[in-house]
Amino acid sequence: MSKQKTKIILAIVLAIALVSVIALASYQFFPAREPPLDEIGYHTLPLLDVTLS
Q1: Helices (DSSP H) in the chain: which residue ranges?
Q2: Nearest to 15 by CA among 7, 26, 4
Q3: Given this model, what pLDDT does residue 27 score?
Q4: Distance separating the N- and C-terminal Cα atoms of the chain
Q5: Global model pTM greater than 0.85
Q6: What would the pLDDT profile of 31-50 be if each residue is shown by its tens digit?
Q7: Percentage of the chain surpassing pLDDT 70?
Q8: What is the pLDDT of residues 5-27, one digit of tens each?
Q9: What are the C-alpha distances in Å from 27 to residues 17, 33, 50, 52?
Q10: CA 35, CA 32: separation in Å to the nearest integer?
């Protein structure tokens, strides 16, 4: 393998690693939004929805 190919592969691996580290860091510092309390437990299939009239 030529040195140029080795450098290209190394650059790709480093770029993927950098993106992964940024994604993990942003997930740690900005966690997913918690659902509001009135939304918890009400996720049912539309066919199973029973509404009282």
Answers
A1: 3-29
A2: 7
A3: 80
A4: 73
A5: no
A6: 767 666 655 555 555 565 56
A7: 57
A8: 999 999 999 999 999 999 888 88
A9: 15, 11, 37, 41
A10: 9
Q: Give the SS3 label for residue 50.
A: coil
Separation of alpha carbons 51 and 48, rounded Å: 10
When computed from its CA atoms, the radius of gyration of the chain, rounded to whole angstroms, is 23
pLDDT at position 36 is 62
* Distance (Å, whole) CA 21 – CA 10: 16
* C-alpha pair distances (Å), 49 with each of 17, 25, 41, 45: 45, 39, 13, 7
Look at residue 31 and give its three-state secondary structure.
coil
Q: Reduced to 3 DSSP states, what percent helix, strand and coil does the chain have, rounded to the nearest 5? A: 60, 0, 40
